[in-house]
Each structure stands twice: as C-alpha cells, then as structure tokens.
Specification:
The protein is mainly beta. About 5% of the residues lie in helices and about 50% in strands. The strands form 2 sheets. The protein has a 22-stranded parallel beta sheet that branches. Strands 20-21-22 form a 3-stranded antiparallel beta sheet, with no helix packed on it. The longest helix is centred in the first third of the chain and has 6 residues. About 45% of the residues are buried. About 0% of the residues have low confidence.
C-alpha cells in the first residue's frame, strides 16, 4: 500500500515526536521504503524516527532535524540479501543531538558523489550529531551467534560528523558506499568519553575512506577496507582498546562457571574469553598522518 504525508502538514501540527514506519506485505522485507519527494523538511523538536529498510530521494533536498533521530529498521533481514542502491541527484542532511542507525538502511537516489563535485560539508549524505552517532544491530543474529547485525548501504558518498562514532555492544555493523570513487568521511566533533559498549565489530567499506574523527569499538574490532585510499588524519582516534573502562558485559551462571551475554530474542552466548580486540587497515594506499592514533 501507499500512504502520503506532506511534511508541511506534520510541521503545522506542532508535533514534538514523529515516527514514520514502512513494512512490506511481500516475502521480501526490503521492498518497504520511505520516499522523500521533492524538498523535504522534517524538524520535530524532540524525536524523529524513520523506520524502513530503504530511504529514497526523488532528487530533492531533505533536511531531518530533532534532538534524537533514529534511521533504519530492526526487522530480521538477512545480511546477504540484496539491497539495490543507486546514486541520484538528492541530498540528505541529518542533524541531531544523538543519532542512531538501527538494523538495516539503504540510501537510494542521493548524489552525485562529493569526491567529484564538492567538499565533505556538501557531500550528498551528511549525518551530524552534537553528541554521538551510534550503530545498533537489529533482530538478525550473526552466523557466529555472538552479534546482532546491521548495515548502512549507500550509492552516494557519506559523511559522518560527531563527537564519536561507535557500534553498540555485541553489534556487527557494516557501512558500505558503492561506486568507483565512493567515499566515507568521518569528521570530528567535540571531546568525547568512551561509550559503555563492548565486543562490537564495525566495518567501513568504500573506494576511499578518510577518518578524521573518533571511531571506537571498545573491546571489539574495527575494519577499514578501502579499494583505493585510506587516510587516518591528524588528530583522529581509531580505538578498540577500552583502556581504563569498566563496561558491564553479560552475566555469570552456575557459580561463575559460565559467562553469558544475551544477544537477542532469548538467545545467549557463552564466552570462554573476552572478545578479541583488533584494528585492520586495508587499502592499496594507506596514509597515517602525524598525530593520528590507532589504539
């Protein structure tokens, strides 16, 4: 089915909280989508949730702003299921005090890539937080059983600006930008304290990756996989150390013999050892600028 909302009507209603949710009646949950038609402004004061696996533009300029913003769907979608994305002419500006990307989200119809036409501030997809940007797994459990999974896929360049970018506890999240010259950029915000998160896996994949901010997966793994260039800029922090942190992680049973962490839907894993800490940098050309930190 199709339901149309006019953004100006939502604004005129004076709503502090807005949630739009799309679900597919077919066996393919990725057919559900929210389409931003023309120039759109959604700016509720408190909370904005766009709950759908696909966010699509018809070529207009979309501005989303609220104190808290959540994009993506938690639905149980196979990570190997195709999420077709294509670049277009639309632009997306997201600004909140806290921004969460939950489960599965494909960005379609945005572009062209800023690598050819603009700067990071004019990238077709710009997600900004005055605090953190957090990636959270949905209902799907990874093949190894230790993580909930999520992914953000875009056909156009993506720029993230925040105090820090990280994945929630026991989340396996992948951010992918397609295209021969596709680019992911992480820009710095203000100072940040390491989050109460542990055991996550965060993967960034694109032709070009520029990490200038703070990227964290405490007691977990970060994989930066660029097909052409990978830059860790001066002042950037790419950290999995968890140094100085005490993060609650799971429970013990049978007198402390078993260490369990509940992943999702009543499923728990037994840990024999703390999660592995690892940073992997992969690219034909890797640049670590003076002052960049890999921890």
């Amino acid at each position: 089915g199709l339901l149309r909302h006019r953004a100006r009507d939502l604004a005129a209603g004076g709503f502090d909280q807005v949630t739009l949710r799309a679900r597919s009646a077919s066996l393919d949950p990725t057919e559900a989508r929210i389409v931003l038609e023309g120039d759109v402004q959604l700016v509720p004061a408190q909370r904005l949730v766009l709950d759908a696996p696909v966010l699509e533009s018809d070529g207009g300029s979309a501005q989303l702003s609220a104190a808290y913003i959540r994009l993506g769907t938690p639905e149980n979608i196979n990570p190997s299921a195709a999420l077709p994305v294509s670049a277009g002419l639309g632009s997306l500006r997201v600004r909140g005090q806290q921004v969460d990307i939950l489960g599965t989200l494909a960005l379609r119809g945005f572009g062209p890539g800023a690598g050819a036409t603009g700067t990071d501030d004019t990238a077709p997809v710009l997600i900004e937080s005055d605090g953190d940007i957090r990636f959270i797994g949905g209902k799907r459990i990874s093949d190894d059983g230790f993580h909930t999974t999520g992914r953000l896929v875009s056909g156009a360049d993506v720029t993230l600006r925040a105090d820090q970018v990280y994945a929630a506890t026991a989340t396996d999240f992948t951010l992918t930008v397609h295209g021969d010259a596709g680019k992911i950029t992480i820009l710095p915000g203000g100072a940040s304290q390491a989050p109460l998160s542990a055991g996550s896996r965060l993967t960034l994949t694109a032709a070009n990756i520029e990490q200038l901010g703070t990227l964290r997966a405490p007691f977990g793994q970060i994989d930066l996989d660029a097909r052409e260039t990978l830059v860790l800029g001066a002042g950037s922090l790419t950290s999995v150390s968890g140094a100085g942190q005490m993060v609650p992680f799971g429970t013990t049973e049978f007198g402390g013999q078993d260490w369990l962490y509940p992943v999702a839907d009543g499923h728990s894993n037994v840990y024999q050892a703390p999660p592995e800490k690892r940073v992997t940098l992969t690219a034909p050309q890797v640049t670590l600028a003076p002052g960049s930190v890999v921890d």
